[in-house]
Amino acid sequence: MFKIFKAFVKKELYHIIRDKRTLIILFGIPIVQVLLFGYAVSTEFKDASIDVLDYAKDETSIQLIQHIQSSGHFTLNKVLTSEADIESGFKEGNVALVMVIPKDFSSDFYGNNPLTIQLIADGSDPNKANTLVQYTTRLIQSFQKNKLQQIENPFLITVEDRMLYNPQLISAYNFIPGTIAFILLIISAMLTSLAITREKELGTMEILLVSPLPPLLIILGKVTPYALLSFIDAILVLIIGHFVFKVPLLGSLILLLLCCLLYVILALSLGIFISTKAKTQQQAMLASMMGLMLPTMILSGFIFPFSSMPQVLQVIGSIVVPATYFIEILKAVMLRGVGFQSVVIEIAILLGMTIVLLALALKNFKIRLE
Amino acid sequence: MDAITVEHITKKYGGVLALNDVSFTVGKGELFGLIGPDGAGKSTLFRILTTLLLADKGKGTVAGHPIVNEYKEIRKKVGYMPGRFSLYQDLSIEENLSFFATIFGTTVEDNYDLIKDIYVQIEPFKKRLAGKLSGGMKQKLALCCALIHKPEVLFLDEPTTGVDAVSRVEFWDMLKKLKTKGIAILVSTPYMDEATLCDRIALIQNGEILKINSPQQMISNFEKPLFSINSTETYRLLNYLRVQNFTESVLPFGENLHLITNKPYEVSQIEHHLKISGFSDSTAKTIQPTVEDIFLDVSQPVN
Q1: Is the pLDDT confidence value at B303 over 50?
Q2: What is the domain partition of chain B in residue ranges?
Q3: How close A237 comes to chain B (CA, Å)?
Q4: What are the tens digits of pLDDT across the range A183-208?
Q5: Does the predicted TM-score (pTM) go above 0.90?
Q6: Cα–Cα dist B180/B28, whole Å
Q7: How far apart are CA A272 and CA A59, in angstroms?
Q8: Mean pLDDT, chain A, whole residue set
Q9: Domain B4-214 architecture
């Protein structure tokens, strides 16, 4: 029996090695995707260009503008002279934010008079606008603190915040676990479902069926190479995440890898299940794209936070999307460095899903053609 | 014990009757041919017998096992070559063969004597990928793969379709040799000229078996007067003969016309009749029927 299994795995490896498309999906996509997410999808910003409409034009206002520039996040585009010029910068697209400094800035500032600085941002990109406004507000607050050091203001509430586990709010900490969950699911599920439906399309499944091979052996033989290669993928992404994007790995590496393995097996079961339903490679491809890619991207909390989803989607996302649990495990083990006890529920759920899917796949595997 | 028995098998696809009450048996070491045009139901019958499809009605056995209940036993004992080339195109000849040997729990070396005659012909190309082989070589490889585990019954679904004339002759020579080793072979073909190479044949059309017998018997049992007529004006002659009251059927066969008359005539009578009807250069002769003549005679007229 083991000999047959070995021959099957060998044959499958030949298929993979000789098919450029499979190789690209297997190794090209994960690397490109991690690098893309890492460098392109970033909520941090650098060198946002701003305009300033300075009505005061006094010493303090110039100091404030310098203070904001010195942070390294902003560069001054233009100093405006009238309110009418504000919009033109936005319209041309070379300004992200306009700061308006009121008249008599110096005297009001040191005279403890109420004073308002207006920040105008481009709301067509809400995320960016929000971040810019928050950043600028902080800079203005720190400017105020520096300048009024001696003069204690008893009425001022100071908020001091600290971001645990990701103090610098580096987005890689979020996307590396998310990307691992995403890539493993898509690659494992899509490739296995494609590999099995390909045999159906080419008619080789017909010959395999008219042979003494038990269905379980056919499935295992086809899936094992993909399990191995997907696991290598997982390690590859972890290495890139750790060394290129400096995502920490505080918890146990063994626990992390075991969880990856479990998740890979789950994804493969999903792929087998899809292939028992799909007749052609096209159907299998569509099913894994629509049925897996979108929910994993959107409903797992990877890109959009759970709390901002409507309740129905929250429920769907937290119950049926395996990536949700896996991302939870990854973040817990990598960033918070917790042990097995803290993620045992998530592991149990993933294990349960795997068993159900495998059972379904085996039950649906057809011993005949129809 | 018969290698294959088929009793009253019926299969419907949607509303279309693919097989209608089909029955026959194939003995051990017999080369049995299913002769019929595309869409006659040959492949469906193969799939039912190789346990890939379930019949709606009827029963059958292969190598002594009922086709539904003991499908696992059957799958160990049969070799199957589907109508479409179904090996791994991205594996070489060698790799395909050793893969199929392994999944049947044997090795190429163990059963080499069985495939030797066929394999030596493709061995020079053993490193070549199966997808890059010519049609004839593909079929030889497929036959090797179907034979590698010494099956008791061999199912070959149109093995010579798309294969050149020389390779077809070679292929049938191989089947004759295999037969002598006690392997029962069920083979289908749309080529009528291959029918005479079988021990017995079943003529099949629209899911129904029209006739079963040995081709020689079929030919000698054919009692209708059959003439082959050659003329320079074949088409005009065909139209003329169609409407004559002595004609039972007339069909073009290559350059000649095959005419079946409804009562016996002498060749000279036919030739004389044609001459006075304006076909002065036609010649006629009585001929032995081919399987095609018999098939066309028993098949329903195409409407």
Answers
A1: no
A2: 4-214, 222-298
A3: 30
A4: 888 888 888 999 999 999 999 999 99
A5: no
A6: 10
A7: 71
A8: 86
A9: 3-Layer(aba) Sandwich (3.40)
For chain A, say whether B152 makes contact (Cβ under 8 Å). no
Q: Say yes or no: do domains B4-214 and B222-298 share a fold.
A: no
Set of chain B residues whose Cβ sits within 8 Å of the Cβ of A207: 80, 82, 86-87, 100, 145
- Stretch A265-293: mean pLDDT: 90
User: By the CB < 8 Å criterion, does A210 face chain B?
Assistant: yes
For residues A244, A247, A253, A259, the Cα torsion angle rounded to the nearest 10 degrees is -100
**Is B80 in CB contact (< 8 Å) with chain A?**
yes
Chain B CB contacts of A206 below 8 Å: 47, 52, 80, 82, 86
Please list every residue in chain A whose beta carbon sits closer than 8 Å to the beta carbon of residue B132. Answer: none
Contacts of A200 in chain B (CB under 8 A): none
- Top residue of A6, A11, A22, A23 to mutate, by most chain B CBs within 10 Å, is A11
Provide the total of helices (H) and of strands (E) in chain A, helices listed first.
16, 4
By the 8 A CB rule, do B55 and B3 touch?
no
User: Which CATH class for the B222-298 domain?
Assistant: alpha beta
Q: Can you tell me the distance from the alpha carbon of A369 to that of A281, in angstroms, rounded to the nearest whole number?
A: 16
The dihedral through the CA atoms of A164, A170, A174, A176 has a sign that is negative
| DSSP assignments along A118-172, one per residue | EEEE-TTSHHHHHHHHHHHHHHHHHHHHHHTSSS--TTPPPP----TT-TT--TH
A161, two tokens: 């915040």
Sign of CA dihedral A249, A252, A258, A263: negative
Q: Are strands B153-156 and B4-13 parallel, antiparallel or unpaired?
A: unpaired
ipTM of the complex: 0.86
Closest CA to A265 of A303, A301, A240, A234: A234
**Residue B23: helix, strand or coil by DSSP?**
strand
Domains and CATH numbers, chain A: 12-41+170-364 (no CATH), 48-147 (3.40.1710.10)
Chain pair A-B, CB pairs under 8 angstroms: 76
The SS3 assignment for A359 reads helix
